[in-house]
Design a protein that fits this description.
With about 700 residues, this protein is of the alpha+beta class. The two termini are about 40 Å apart.
Length: about 700
Amino acid sequence: MSLADSDRELVVSELDREPTRAEAALFENLWSEHCAYRSSRPLLSAFDSEGEQVVVGPGDDAAVVALDDETYITMGIESHNHPSYVDPFDGAATGVGGIVRDTLSMGAYPVALADSLYFGEFDDEHSKYLFEGVVEGISHYGNCIGVPTVAGSVDFHPDYEGNPLVNVACVGLTNEDRLVTAEAQEPGNKLVLVGNGTGRDGLGGASFASEDLAEDAETEDRPAVQVGDPYAEKLLIEANEQLVDEGLIESARDLGAAGLGGASSEMVAKADLGAHIELERVHQREPNMNALEILLAESQERMCYEVEPDNVDRVREIVERFDLGCSVIGEVTDGNYVCTFDGESVVDVDAYFLGEGAPMNDLASEEPAQPETDLPEVDLQEAFETIVSSPNTASKRWVYRQYDHEVGVRTSVGPGDDAAIIAVREAEQGLALSSGAAPNWTDVAPYEGARAIALENATNIAAKGATPLAAVDCLNGGNPEKPDVYGGFEGIVDGLAEMCETLSTPVVGGNVSLYNDSVAGPIPPTPTLAMVGSKDGYDAPPLSVEPDGALLLVGDLGLETGSPRLGGSEYLARFDGSDAFPELPADPAAVVETLAAVANDDATLAVHDVSHGGLAVSLAEMVTEDAGLEVAIPSDDPAGALFHEQPGRALVQTESPEAVREAFDGVAPVVELGSGTDDGRLTIDGGRTLTADAAEIRERRATIERELE
């Protein structure tokens, strides 16, 4: 990729001269889609990012949200999609490292990770190779740095075959006194580079992430993939903690896209300031590096700090104690962004123009066509067995058992549940975390599917008794220059924004990843949402049922208005059908608020969200060896009732069904389906009786584990 002719003309006009080689490369990377959001920024104003709890919103390395007057959390999410295709282990690992350093740059300590992963069909050998490599990379890096991976999702869809997605979110803890931002503060302050030595890995990573993947990407683009060192990152985490504790950092930015050039120029551009950087001062781990390589390499485990001159020696002392490199590379100025190499000027540009001067794209879009109704005829027993064992709805235990999700001793509810809960003892609150998307939904109906994804994550949080607090998003799409692709992308932006506003859940930050397109075609529009909620205390109702207690469905069976809409369901994906997407609840905010209150009631025994795979999968997931379920489904359309995936629904097992009905009166329908049993067996009477015991269900749901071991 090189600087486009139209962009070069703008640069020449601004500089009144031809750019140097280093300047052209800087503009190429910082004006790329990955950094400048040229196709997406015009759409992002749809998001409501404000609220009393929002301390720092979009535009910094991570957002900051207040849990109370004294305790803040940070939230960030990033994609590492193209690198994970080329090198799944290092691509995914360095994605974890990058989002953790975004957390550090806000003066926060990372306490939880969530990964949302998307691959081609599970039975494809290349997809399995990518899947295994990505999971290994995430587990290796997260386990080594001691940050628990507590939540996330895994989806398989044929349109990810040529371009998998790896989206990673991180939550950190800080407070008002420790808070740092990425905005430079004062001319004369020093710029200090801390961490690993700079090498030649990751060169041109930002521009690489802004292109469609070519057929030979796995070999030709390998130099653009960074190589991680989690042990250096762990040292960096602890060094950063001490630097922040002692108040030695004025501003900070991690070195990610476009390396040192990106981080340092963005710091000063935010304050409309400049910098003077001497590139030969950068500590390096490879010989004979030139100015462009030093400026743009995306070597990992590095931070750029703004430090007052009197504090530089103390910073160096702390950093060297942690056996990390430390270079005073320049200072903040009130002029241009200037980089020299061995006394020769290689960059001399206005920092704000470099960071904000990229023109936005005005792209054509087409609204996606509505699917026709074409429903398959499938035997009910076959459908149940197929959907329960589908890789998309099957157990993800093979994935999360590789993650250390208890390190840090904050995890109250771990992976495998509707949402994780992290104990924030500083505020005596539980922080619920849910992260994911639903490519089947947004492939069929981008706008409605994205609304459903936001509601689904909120329902996950409410099922644990928490109320939504804030969210960050990772908006993944194909090549936006294709009108149908851009139309789908517009749909997911508007749908996510609309539902989050309805739920009074500000979207406080995020990431955009476009050009996820390959010879296999574009990916489905994929709006990953990482949402947090809060609650008093750290306890939550389980999703597993007890032997006694009535089982209620909060929400529609789908039979009230005729046949349920099956669009976007795993049922239609497996049996080759099509249909319109289900309607969402009329008052989703009230549903979420009421469900959270019911989940915290002493009479509530279990709560489980109903979503992917529909009612059939949710019922199967609630059964254990010690407790089963006996339920009845109206037989008019049992397949529709069992497999449609309208979000905003939940199963509640309670000792007081009348109290649940009263709570949801005027909010959502409540249907009593049956009750718990002590035989560890699921029995569904839907005109035809379906039965399976816990061992049979566990075996069917072990699809991923069985195939990969």
